[in-house]
Write a structure and sequence with these properties.
Elements: E1 2-8, E2 13-19, H1 25-40, E3 52-54, E4 59-61, E5 77-80
Parallel strand pairs: 1-5
Antiparallel strand pairs: 1-2, 3-4, 3-5
Length: 81
């Protein structure tokens, strides 16, 4: 299980989340968005256009790969853009 800091610049908030390293980025994104939308009473439009950016790696994570394949480590910061 990975502990990640998720930043969402569009709403100016950050969240600490736990994710399975075997999860696909696309599934992780969906889970995080579901959680945040419930917590903040928001709705996401055009979810398919959102991207996940690793601050430490300086690159976007491919949705079709797992966190493990991207070598994401606990404590990393990611942004949902």
């Amino acid at each position: 299980m990975l502990k990640l800091r998720v930043q969402i610049p569009d709403i100016g908030k950050e969240y600490d989340v736990q994710c399975n390293e075997k999860a696909y980025v696309e599934d992780m994104l969906q889970d995080i968005l579901d959680l945040i939308c419930r917590k903040e009473s928001l709705q996401v439009e055009k979810e398919e256009k959102l991207a996940v950016y690793s601050i430490q790696k300086g690159s976007f994570l491919k949705k079709s790969r797992t966190l493990e394949e991207h070598r994401v480590q606990s404590g990393e910061n990611i942004m949902i853009l």
